[in-house]
Amino acid sequence: MKKIFLLVIVLISININAQKLHENGKYVDVNGVKLYYEVYGEGEPLLMIHGNGGSFICFENQVEEFSKHFKVLLVDCRGRGNSSYKKGVELTFDLQVEDFSLFLEKLNIKKTNIVGWSDGGIIGLLLALKHPEKVNKLVTSGANIFPEGVIHLDDMKKTVLDLESKNSNHENDLAIDLINLDIKYPNLSFANLNVIQSKSLIIAGDHDEIKNDHTLKIFESIPNAQLAILPNSSHSALIENASLFNPIVLKFLTE
Q1: 152-159, long-range: CB within 8 Å, 24+ apart, which pairs?
Q2: Residue 4: left if φ>0, alpha if ψ -120 to 50, beta else—which one?
Q3: Taking Cα atoms as reference points, which of 148, 72, 65, 132 lies closest to residue 97?
Q4: How far is the C-alpha of 19 from the C-alpha of 226, rounded, in Å?
Q5: Checking DSSP bridges between strand 112-117 and strand 45-49, what pairing results, if any?
Q6: Minimal CA–CA distance to 27: which of 36, 15, 38?
Q7: Which pTM does this prediction carry?
Q8: Preceding peptide of 147 cis, ω within 30°
Q9: What confidence tens digit (pLDDT) does each residue in 100-157 have?
């Protein structure tokens, strides 16, 4: 099993237990699910969107520093962390984009900066495309815009088949849904990105799970975008290399 699948399964195991509820944690009803969120700091809003099988605890190395400059909004995506999941409804990026759009409306946030990691970066890009009026600056790390941008896509397909063969009691339903999300979606083209109005920073590790040329073309397709390839970094650059990731992102967001 390749690194990308180890990452997905490890994050899913974290998600099953969910993080401890913070004293200031709250729920909001959107799109048929309850999204759990926490808020740190004050000022201009900064929405941080996590990756596929995890929860917003992936940003634990960013929250303290980022909340000195922004009102940081941490949200568990549907079915992960402490947020609920609606079985029988296909998990897609478009569905999650509407989750976050409605979340912002419920909190009366008209416009926000976004930092999205992996699938969270995909959601950020789609929010900038579908709801440009709601997105100020956008940072993505390890995002792709179609499944073939992932290095080990074929192995992901094999992993789903294996999970399905061992799913007689439906214990693998969520894991299957999560991996299928990245096998089937998103389905954008590089040309679609030409209309993004948000000032954007595209980040990847120098040995990311997203193909290098795919990341480069995303950068080239967004008007006035910036690119940062972090040395000695994998798909999890924000976790393993926060000392480099954080100042680069903060400089972009505050300049």
Answers
A1: 152/2, 152/3, 152/4, 152/5, 152/209, 153/183, 155/1, 155/2, 155/4, 155/5, 156/4, 156/5, 156/182, 156/183, 157/183, 159/1, 159/5
A2: alpha
A3: 132
A4: 34
A5: parallel
A6: 36
A7: 0.93
A8: no
A9: 999 999 999 999 999 999 999 999 999 999 999 999 999 999 999 999 999 999 999 9
